[in-house]
Design goal:
With 305 residues, this protein is α+β, with helices and mostly antiparallel strands. Helix 1 packs antiparallel against helix 2 and helix 6 runs antiparallel to helix 7. A hairpin with a 2-residue loop joins strand 4 and strand 5. It contains seven helices and 16 strands.
Length: 305
Amino acid sequence: MGHGCRYRKHESHASADDETVGTGNRFDDGGSGTRRQPDMSGDPLSLTVGVATDVGRVRDHNEDTAMAHGTVFVVADGMGGHAAGEVASRIAADTMRELADRPQPRAEDVMSQLELANQRILASAARHPEQAGMGTTVAGLAVVTSGESDRWAVFNVGDSRVYRYLDGVLTLMTVDHSHVRELLETGAITEAEMAWHPLRNVITRSLGTKPMGVPDIWVFAPCPGERFLICSDGLSNELPADQIRDLIEANLTAQAAADALVRAAVMAGGRDNVTAVVVGLGRGRVDSDADTNTDTSADTGTASK
């Protein structure tokens, strides 16, 4: 079944005629677990969700925000002094949360909410001088309508990531908007050098900038049995891909996987805040309708976290 599932990647700078357009905050609306799932393929499907976050071993407060509400899942990694990063990531998560309350949202609605989040962050900073310069990355997963069918939409701005696990294979679905990624693509550094490069924390797109960095959005069909990991770079910078895969595979529930991933990243160094949202798609009766809320720079600009 898994090998028959395919997906296409679309960047957000598509034409209007295309299908896709281009904090330690853990909010709980009823607990993680199994929840209501739209009919993606004509057969009963269910979502399982787990959320975990940790301040890490170095930072004195957590500026990550994780949000899981309905069929929208987000991780935002804030930046800015005086806890302003926590404010920015919370604004981003709260704004994306509104997407879950729309009937049959489309990929362009995801883009609109990201733009709205950017506007709200800028407006908050304008009202509160102590928040000047705050911003946030955002990465997430949402169910959107494409034609007559429900599809996954994966999106990101900055270097927070979305991974997909299926049939023993872990795939990185997003592309980091970071200075070291650009250096890698030009051949200036190797992949091994990325983790220790002095500019590894400099991102090239974020929310909280004018103009906003262009988000990337990918839309594809769901496949029962798949799992997604949405995480801040505090996790992906500490754990290699094979360890992430093994931890997702070894833990039967989404919550156990999220807890194990965050714990492993903290044990590996915990140099930054660490946040994970794990979403699993499976078949079977839905036992509850629970929601769990836990909570980048212009194309030519950069920001440091």
